[in-house]
Amino acid sequence: MTARLAFSGLALAGLACLAALLLIGADDQQQRVPADAAQIVRIYPHDSTAFTEGLFFQDGHLYESTGQVGHSSIRKVTLETGKVVREVIVPAPYFGEGIIAWGKQIISLTWQHQTGFRWTLDGFRKIGKFAYPGEGWALTSDGKAIIMSDGTPELRFLDPVTLKEQRRLRVTLNGRPLAKINEIEYVEGEILANIWQTNYIVRIDPVSGKVIAAIDLSALTQSVNPTDSNAVPNGIAWDADHRRLFVTGKLWPVLFEITPPKSAPAKP
Fold first, then answer.
1. Which of 10, 63, 115, 169 has its CA 20 to 30 A from that of 86?
2. Alpha-carbon torsion 140, 236, 66, 113, what sign?
3. CA quadruple 50, 76, 73, 245: dihedral, nearest 10
4. What's the pTM?
């Protein structure tokens, strides 16, 4: 079921509630953006203590990073059982954030320490670190560059070898900058992004930066029935070989496989 909704900016009302991202009945002069309710394909177990910050799927396993100082980690997880088969702790004072694989390495961010780390993909051995200005929120890759979110309306494109910033892409909705871009995943020519403290994943055109559509996770959040205000949707992983899209949230006891967006990108 598709609702024809119009974005009217992001209004955050504090950590205790999910902000309204889409407003019904916008002015006809505003561009209307389709928001499709997520269709559940399958449900998998997920560690309900995991403060999910980053997620990706590779070689049959999920890789997940968790946050909170003193509880941050990077994990390799069996999809079917939710069992953690490998884990490395990201020690205090760091607050772990997003992760992405590049070659035989995992690249990870931290929130406010302007420091990222390199780890071996096969053994989670720390092999280096790098610096960046501002906050670190999430990572993905389009196969050419590593894409980074930092909580602002701008996505950074990094050289995957040096991790130096190459350029930025400003994300807009009806011509207005869209902030609080959290976990991101590159899926079939689009950047999918959780918007922090909302039930929406937005679909971003990686050339123009325009939001072209959204996925509404409201029913998934309701089914989880979170009691912690921090337990918001966060975490997107894409299995390109089998066209499976996985989503979860911070402190959620389950991970959902949902129907992926249409292969043909929506038109702005």
1. 115
2. positive
3. -50
4. 0.86
Q: Contact 38/220 with Cβ under 8 angstroms?
A: yes
Look at the alpha carbons of 208, 212, 54, 111 in this order and tell me if their dihedral is positive or negative: positive
- Which uninterrupted H or E stretch holds 220? helix 218-224
Residues in the chain with pLDDT < 70?
Answer: 1-31, 262-268
For the stretch 11-46, pLDDT in tens is 333 222 223 344 433 344 455 788 989 999 999 999
Contacts 24+ apart (CB under 8 A), 178-181: 178/7, 178/10, 178/153, 178/202, 178/211, 179/10, 179/151, 179/152, 179/153, 180/10, 180/12, 180/19, 180/151, 181/137, 181/138, 181/149, 181/151, 181/152, 181/153, 181/155
